[in-house]
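Regression test case RT-17, inverse folding.

Input:
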């Protein structure tokens, strides 16, 4: 057990949520282990203290440098409440699920620990898909997004049905300029014909949790009957979003930011499977060459710089369809793409983030971004994340 008495002003507290909290789900943990190994590799020249649960204390045994690990047997949150004040600086990885990223950021900020990542206000906005849509509306192209409250006392099913009928030309004139009366008062919403309840329509909708990661709890709405299934996915009183389902090229952009200026460092291809049973994120590869790469980079940079307090490593998801680019969501955190990107890019990502936020360098000092090869990161049949570097 490393003694914290040697912690000094230059020391950095480092952790990844699942490996520090002791989560044992293999499909989650394999990704989490690769993320924290990548981050520690980038920070090998820094004075770092890495938090780990007991079952993960040996994950750095094959490294060719010593890693100071702090093995914790209590909950991560309890340990941080008691011990985080010892550190002046921290860099960590967590996802938006259960508000983990937001809560941990806020906790560290309350202990006056400088976080090399987004502040809790930016994390909260980016974690909420509807708030992100609302904040960036008329700034960055996005699919039309409606906020739905699942409540038996409301007309939420009928509202979604009207949206569904409208995009299929069965109600209104099919445009987005007020033709979908989803926000009207219940007394203004007409009773609709359900005779085509099981008809699979050409234009579909997709429902997603407002707070969620990857493809968790998504539902394709291809017929009116699918709307009823939403009650089995989302709890009474919960909120989710509904959008037109766009079948396009799913990709993401990784950026690093000092909180004011951002630089895109990669375009990544995402491999996602979505069908009537839900969706699954399987992995991807980097770099991804696309004719619209420069335009996607432009949108990603603008979106990142629009959100106050968004800094450090940021991942922004897009979908490209017939030459149109739509922003899907912002991830104010290290994303899975980092595990591949970190191995092929010509900069040390984590160290560059520290230097940017500490104002030792500016974005202009970073220079041209290049890659030594291509990296893929995909889950195998057992849910284990496998990373492959393409030989040049």
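Golden output:
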């Amino acid at each position: 057990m490393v003694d914290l008495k040697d912690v000094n002003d230059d020391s950095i507290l480092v952790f990844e949520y699942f490996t520090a909290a002791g989560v044992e789900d293999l499909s989650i943990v394999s990704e989490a282990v690769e993320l924290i190994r990548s981050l520690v590799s980038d920070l090998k020249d820094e004075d770092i203290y890495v938090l780990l649960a007991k079952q993960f204390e040996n994950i750095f045994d094959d490294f060719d440098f010593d890693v100071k690990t702090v093995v914790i047997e209590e909950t991560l949150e309890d340990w941080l409440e008691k011990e985080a004040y010892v550190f002046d600086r921290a860099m960590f990885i967590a996802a938006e699920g259960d508000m983990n990223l937001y809560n941990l950021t806020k906790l560290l900020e309350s202990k006056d620990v400088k976080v090399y990542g987004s502040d809790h206000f930016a994390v909260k906005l980016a974690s909420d898909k509807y708030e992100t849509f609302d904040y960036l509306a008329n700034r960055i192209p996005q699919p039309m997004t409606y906020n739905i409250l699942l409540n038996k006392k409301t007309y939420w099913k009928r509202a979604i049905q009207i949206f569904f009928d409208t995009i299929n030309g069965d109600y209104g004139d099919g445009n987005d300029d007020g033709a979908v009366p989803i926000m009207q008062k219940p007394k203004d919403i007409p009773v609709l014909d359900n005779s085509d309840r099981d008809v699979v329509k050409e234009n579909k909708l997709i429902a997603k949790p407002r707070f969620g990661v990857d493809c968790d709890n998504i539902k394709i709405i291809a017929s009116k009957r699918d709307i009823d299934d939403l009650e089995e996915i989302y709890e009474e009183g919960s909120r989710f979003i509904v959008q037109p389902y766009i079948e396009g090229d799913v990709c993401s952009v990784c950026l690093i930011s000092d909180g004011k200026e951002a630089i895109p460092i990669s375009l990544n291809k995402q491999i996602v499977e979505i069908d009537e049973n839900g969706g699954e994120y399987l992995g991807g590869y980097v770099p991804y060459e696309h004719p619209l790469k420069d335009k996607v980079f432009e949108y990603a940079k603008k979106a990142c710089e629009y959100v106050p307090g968004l800094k450090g490593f940021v991942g922004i998801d897009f979908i490209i369809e017939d030459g149109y680019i739509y922003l899907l969501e912002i991830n104010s955190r290290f994303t899975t793409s980092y595990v591949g990107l970190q191995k092929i890019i010509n900069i040390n990502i984590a160290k560059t983030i520290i230097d940017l936020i500490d104002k030792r360098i500016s974005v202009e000092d970073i220079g041209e971004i290049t890659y030594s090869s291509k990296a893929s990161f995909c889950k195998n049949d057992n849910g284990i994340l496998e990373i492959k570097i393409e030989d040049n």
